[in-house]
């Protein structure tokens, strides 16, 4: 997302120079500075090199862009699911009875510019668990084909190593490993760089206005994921780079 905006401002600079200079210095430079992406900071957009196709992907920017883009997508899906539930509940009550849920759901459904005011909680995990770290070690030592599909039997390795572990923890670890393998097929082996090149909380705060605008939400709360804060009856977990998003 940020890389796209950077290239967009550079390309548009010859056409609307004053606006692109202002937007880049005001919004992008602070984000790059906070996340140690100094080489992307520009004092003058007009002096920047015109974007070219390059097969070499900046690892930091790749992870940052992917994180923000995925977070926006997941929040949008969460909001749409919640609105669907409200609409379904309202329909069940039938008749001409008007209640708060029906009014809200109808308004959100019929007005594409409506802002969802419900509380969105983003649970983020500052650290990987020992089991998750081990998954990355196993996958880094595994083999993949030309389509980035894993060819090693990583499940057997995990099962053998976790024979004496709690069955639920073993299941969660296998699910986590399968999720990482799926990401590798989509984004490539650089997914195995398990350490985030940015501070997750800062990335969310720096892009909060953008996130709220694109997801049409007004109330987002950041929560550190832990055994104490994990919502009851929630089977999903948060890991670094993959927050858990819920709508209260």
Summarize this, please?
The protein is mainly α. The chain has helices at 2-12, 17-34, 59-93, 100-110, 130-140, 154-161, 167-187, 200-206, 208-215; strands spanning 120-124, 220-224, 244-247.
Low-confidence stretches: none
Helix content: 40-55%
Strands in their spatial order, largest beta sheet: 2-1-3
Taking all Cα atoms into account, the compactness measure Rg is 22 Å
Question: Based on helices, strands and strand pairing, what is the structural class?
Answer: mainly alpha
The helix/strand order is: HHHHEHHHHHEE
List how many beta strands DSSP finds. 3
Supply the number of helical segments: 9
Largest sheet: 3 strands, mixed
* Mean residue pLDDT: 83
N-C termini distance:
27 Å
Beta-strand residue percentage = 5-15%
Query: What is the overall shape?
Result: globular
Main attributes of the structure:
single chain; 248 residues; mainly alpha; three-stranded mixed beta sheet; 9 helices; 3 strands
Could you give the topology of this structure?
Blueprint: H1 2-12, H2 17-34, H3 59-93, H4 100-110, E1 120-124, H5 130-140, H6 154-161, H7 167-187, H8 200-206, H9 208-215, E2 220-224, E3 244-247
Parallel strand pairs: 1-2
Antiparallel strand pairs: 1-3
Describe this protein's structure.
The mean pLDDT is 83. The chain has 248 residues and is mainly alpha-helical. The chain has a 3-stranded mixed sheet, with helices on one face. It has 9 helices and 3 strands, in the order H-H-H-H-E-H-H-H-H-H-E-E. It has helices spanning 2-12, 17-34, 59-93, 100-110, 130-140, 154-161, 167-187, 200-206, 208-215; strands spanning 120-124, 220-224, 244-247. Among the domains are: 2-47, no CATH class; 130-192. The two termini are 27 Å apart. The chain is 52% helix and 6% strand.
């Amino acid at each position: 997302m940020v890389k796209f905006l950077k290239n967009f401002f550079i390309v548009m600079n010859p056409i609307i120079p004053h606006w692109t200079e202002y937007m880049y210095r005001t919004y992008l430079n602070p984000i790059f500075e906070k996340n140690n992406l100094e080489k992307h900071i520009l004092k003058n957009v007009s002096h920047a090199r015109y974007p070219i196709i390059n097969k070499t992907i900046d690892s930091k920017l790749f992870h940052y862009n992917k994180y923000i883009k995925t977070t926006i997508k997941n929040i949008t899906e969460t909001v749409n699911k919640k609105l669907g539930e409200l609409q379904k509940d309202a329909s069940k009550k039938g008749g001409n009875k008007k209640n708060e849920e029906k009014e809200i759901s109808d308004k959100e459904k019929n007005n594409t510019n409506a802002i969802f005011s419900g509380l969105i909680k983003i649970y983020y995990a500052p650290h990987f668990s020992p089991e998750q770290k081990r998954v990355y070690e196993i996958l880094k030592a595994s083999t993949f084909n030309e389509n980035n599909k894993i060819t090693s039997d990583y499940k057997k390795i995990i099962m053998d190593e976790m024979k004496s572990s709690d069955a639920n923890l073993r299941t969660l670890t296998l699910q986590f490993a399968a999720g990482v393998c799926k990401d590798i097929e989509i984004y490539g082996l650089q997914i195995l760089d398990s350490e985030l090149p940015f501070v997750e909380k800062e990335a969310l705060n720096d892009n909060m206005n953008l996130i709220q605008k694109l997801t049409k939400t007004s109330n987002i709360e950041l929560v550190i994921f832990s055994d104490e804060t994990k919502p009851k009856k929630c089977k999903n977990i948060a890991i670094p780079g993959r927050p858990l998003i819920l709508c209260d």
